[in-house]
Amino acid sequence: MKISILLGLAALIPALLFANVYQGFRFERQERGIARLQQQQHERFEENKRLITGIAMLRSPTRLRRIAIEDLELTAVGPERIITIELDSGSGNDFSRYIR
Q1: CB 87, CB 94: distance < 8 Å
Q2: Where are the domains of the chain?
């Protein structure tokens, strides 16, 4: 009986050692995966900041004004060229529903 217990303990010790090493291996693999994901998150965050800055530059009024004047050859309209049309909404004409 004592010999079977000793043999069982002798077999159990290497099995537990192997289980401990395997768990450590799995832990290291998970840590590497987490570090890789954190690096990807950081890179995407930085890329997002650059894209937001680029969008802000593209939407700047100065840039839009330059494109309108130089590329599209648009000119500013003075108040003398603006025509205002006022319609009485109760006049019963059919055009009042199209004007908002």
Answers
A1: no
A2: 2-97
